[in-house]
Amino acid sequence: MENTQSYAEFFQTLISQIESVRGKPTTDGGFYTQTKARAIQIFRMEIYLRDYRKKYGTVWMPLPGISAANHRILTKFHWTIPAIEALTIEQVFFALHDEVVNHPISEGAEAALKQYALRDMPAEGPFQDFLKNEWIPEIAELMPSDDPF
Fold it and tell me: Least C-beta-crowded within 10 Å: which of 42, 60, 92, 146?
């Protein structure tokens, strides 16, 4: 399947980022499954935002980083920009959750998730808190970009 390896490498980059922020090794079973669950959240959000940028970004406003999520929240809820900029990471993910989970992903991305992430999906889900720098929106630059979506 196309791009499976590239998506798998991107997923591993997300795992490494979360581990570096959390400061725990992947050898702890519970920690590792929670790390994978958080990486899945970020992976799906990044695919959604990449495709949102392709659709709504322009040469003069490409919607880099968090600005794509902020733009979508602005158009979805019509909140003020200061209110949107005050949102926590958890609130951004919550506000866009319905769109992210229903957003189609390519066969390559789906295969990478099945191969590397969903083998032993954690029953406990991701961490309860979302630490600063677990999600760095600029990391999207490492994601494969040749999806049909």
Answer: 60
